[in-house]
Amino acid sequence: MSVGKATPARWTLRIFAGVVLVFLMAPILAIIPLSFNSEPFFTYPMPGFSLRWYEAVFASVDWQLSARNSFIVAALATVLATALGTLAAIGLNRPDCPWRMALSAIIISPIVIPLVVAAVGIFYFYADIGLLNTLTGLVLSHTALGAPFVMITVAATLAGFDHRLMRAAASLGAPPVTAFRRVMLPIIMPGVVSGAIFAFVTSFDDVVVALFITGAEQKTLPRQMWSGLREQISPAITAVATLLIIVAAALMLTANALQARQQRINNPNSAH
Amino acid sequence: MTHSYENTAIGTAGHVQAASALRIRLKRANRAGSFKALALVAPLLLFLSVTFLLPIGLLLARAVDNREVAQVLSHTTEQLAGWDMRATPSDDVYEALVRDLQSASRDRVAEVSKRLNYHSPGFRTLMNRTVREAGNLTSENARAELLAINDKWGEVETWQIIKQASPALTDYYLLKAVDLAKMPDGDIVTAKDDAIYTDVIVRTVVISLCVTVLCVLIGYPLAYLLATTDPVYSRWLLMLVLLPFWTSLLVRTTAWLVLLQSNGVVNSLLSWLGLISQPLELVHNRVGVLIAMTHILLPFVVLPVHAVMKGIPDVYWRAASSLGAPAHKAFLRVYLPLTMPGVGAGALLVFILALGYYITPALVGGPKDQMLSYFIAYFVNQSSNWGMAAALAVVLLTLVVGLYLALVLAYGRSRAGAKP
């Protein structure tokens, strides 16, 4: 009954899973071709092929500004989140770390706490301290949202880390920072990088916090999409969506390759 | 070379001494170790405390914060403190009100009017008219002059409302968030007007539960296929789960809007197949919300369940069947229980995330599908009613944090909230 015997039950399962996979891919499969539609319709068959929606997006000042803001904010938030999250993961991984459950529960809370609650709270707080409508404010909030993902991925990598290596480095005279840089960091690097990718995506995708704490000058891509969707869906949005799907696919493949490499390092004997 | 002690008593004493010294050193080393560990965690912890947890804490405090009335009408509330709430208050109270209104700025009075208007619609008009005339009032003849402006100042209830709204802390917003109200005499009753929040809470829980059930029901078989199929194929199939997972939430919501419109892809496909003659209503209603939210949250069940399934060795199936169990029995009695930790973690995560959803229902749902998050945003954006926004945030956070703690305690830190 296990691996792939072609019983009728197995076929039912395959068909069901196939339908679910089509459901999962449907939005992506349908929206990409529509972005090349020569007419502003959302139905098939398409009357003709055209790049006009892409031209419209690239020519628009609004889209340019929001894309630039999105990249700047995501890049800065990623750097901060990666540094803070990696340190925290190393601290939590130490065998002598006290209150480990409570500390990690607090660190993971930005993933769990509803975004609207966080966004409204940050809005209220930033209004008092003058960070409202600034890119700095957005970077700080996105760092808070991304850091837990870095902590989780690095912690997962560290689970397979042999702490004797650090002791060996120390006994050979390496100061802690050198031991970290030369021994630990290269080993946990895949975890750090995939954590960084997660942090980047988290910032790049966020719309709720951006909606509350940014003004017209700081708008990000998702915010620009949101306002487009609220008014009337312009086919230009399908072009932006397609571009974002390509970015997502590239980031996913990178993270996946890193994870596969990590698995090979952790269990070199397994066949795959 | 043998090592023996001539004098056992001294030897034992030496041992004890050495052992206790060692114990102290060990303790010290442990303490230094925990200190180092905490020093590494501290930067992120401090950062999150200041940029994330503190703002949320301050917001929640707004749910019971009630300083406006006591600050602006300070003399009035002081005088009202000794009032027995039966007959209209003494002349001193009227004088105090005139003094307060004359010294306060227009903006602050407007805040107070808004606050009092929550208790009794019409209070804002009363206050506005009184403030407009306040410049001409004298404190000697305050009662008669206020009554001349509006005879509501002669009603006991008016003063009851001011007194009720004057303590620095209030349970007004929290009660209102669950459709309760406190009468002037202190009884707590079901709110009569706009009692919609229990409906909204129930709706939020129901939508989240439906999405969770759908995700588990359609995600489990998919995870099973991925875990048991040839690894060469399963790696590619897994990509099909991961790609939507990595794609921006807004992109996917956009796509569903485009697909589900009455002249969208799904409707035109169905009518081309001859299955429908009229386009189906698929967006701006509950169906659209369930489709889009299930789509967005499905990977959160598939991935953890798949991870657990991959860890279950094949021999368990063989053992069960060699002991005479038919396939369905082996599944129900052996396989299913082994996968439950993954299902539980995934389902709880989906449920928690669904409770807080805002963007997807706001875009794909109709007015009857808006969840708690929508109303929190509404009170901030439309009416700047921070007290109400905060009270609803308390309700939502209580639901979410309660379940989150259950998740942490049940599965330990490694599984909680982990995107695999």
From TrEMBL, chain A:
<keyword id="KW-0812">Transmembrane</keyword>
<feature type="transmembrane region" description="Helical">
    <location>
        <begin position="233"/>
        <end position="255"/>
    </location>
</feature>
<feature type="transmembrane region" description="Helical">
    <location>
        <begin position="71"/>
        <end position="90"/>
    </location>
</feature>
<feature type="domain" description="ABC transmembrane type-1">
    <location>
        <begin position="67"/>
        <end position="255"/>
    </location>
</feature>
<keyword id="KW-0472">Membrane</keyword>
<dbReference type="Pfam" id="PF00528">
    <property type="entry name" value="BPD_transp_1"/>
</dbReference>
<keyword id="KW-0813">Transport</keyword>
<comment type="similarity">
    <text>Belongs to the binding-protein-dependent transport system permease family.</text>
</comment>
<feature type="transmembrane region" description="Helical">
    <location>
        <begin position="139"/>
        <end position="162"/>
    </location>
</feature>
<dbReference type="GO" id="GO:0055085">
    <property type="term" value="P:transmembrane transport"/>
</dbReference>
<keyword id="KW-1133">Transmembrane helix</keyword>
<keyword id="KW-0614">Plasmid</keyword>
<feature type="transmembrane region" description="Helical">
    <location>
        <begin position="102"/>
        <end position="127"/>
    </location>
</feature>
<dbReference type="InterPro" id="IPR000515">
    <property type="entry name" value="MetI-like"/>
</dbReference>
<feature type="transmembrane region" description="Helical">
    <location>
        <begin position="183"/>
        <end position="213"/>
    </location>
</feature>
<keyword id="KW-1003">Cell membrane</keyword>
<keyword id="KW-0997">Cell inner membrane</keyword>
<protein>
    <submittedName>
        <fullName>ABC transporter permease protein, putative</fullName>
    </submittedName>
</protein>
<feature type="transmembrane region" description="Helical">
    <location>
        <begin position="12"/>
        <end position="36"/>
    </location>
</feature>
<dbReference type="InterPro" id="IPR035906">
    <property type="entry name" value="MetI-like_sf"/>
</dbReference>
<dbReference type="GO" id="GO:0005886">
    <property type="term" value="C:plasma membrane"/>
</dbReference>
UniProtKB/TrEMBL annotation, chain B:
<dbReference type="GO" id="GO:0005886">
    <property type="term" value="C:plasma membrane"/>
</dbReference>
<keyword id="KW-0614">Plasmid</keyword>
<dbReference type="InterPro" id="IPR035906">
    <property type="entry name" value="MetI-like_sf"/>
</dbReference>
<feature type="transmembrane region" description="Helical">
    <location>
        <begin position="388"/>
        <end position="411"/>
    </location>
</feature>
<protein>
    <submittedName>
        <fullName>Probable permease of ABC transporter</fullName>
    </submittedName>
</protein>
<keyword id="KW-0812">Transmembrane</keyword>
<feature type="transmembrane region" description="Helical">
    <location>
        <begin position="37"/>
        <end position="61"/>
    </location>
</feature>
<feature type="transmembrane region" description="Helical">
    <location>
        <begin position="200"/>
        <end position="227"/>
    </location>
</feature>
<comment type="similarity">
    <text>Belongs to the binding-protein-dependent transport system permease family. CysTW subfamily.</text>
</comment>
<feature type="transmembrane region" description="Helical">
    <location>
        <begin position="287"/>
        <end position="309"/>
    </location>
</feature>
<keyword id="KW-0472">Membrane</keyword>
<keyword id="KW-1133">Transmembrane helix</keyword>
<feature type="transmembrane region" description="Helical">
    <location>
        <begin position="256"/>
        <end position="275"/>
    </location>
</feature>
<dbReference type="Pfam" id="PF00528">
    <property type="entry name" value="BPD_transp_1"/>
</dbReference>
<feature type="transmembrane region" description="Helical">
    <location>
        <begin position="233"/>
        <end position="251"/>
    </location>
</feature>
<feature type="domain" description="ABC transmembrane type-1">
    <location>
        <begin position="201"/>
        <end position="407"/>
    </location>
</feature>
<keyword id="KW-1003">Cell membrane</keyword>
<dbReference type="InterPro" id="IPR000515">
    <property type="entry name" value="MetI-like"/>
</dbReference>
<dbReference type="GO" id="GO:0055085">
    <property type="term" value="P:transmembrane transport"/>
</dbReference>
<feature type="transmembrane region" description="Helical">
    <location>
        <begin position="330"/>
        <end position="359"/>
    </location>
</feature>
<keyword id="KW-0813">Transport</keyword>
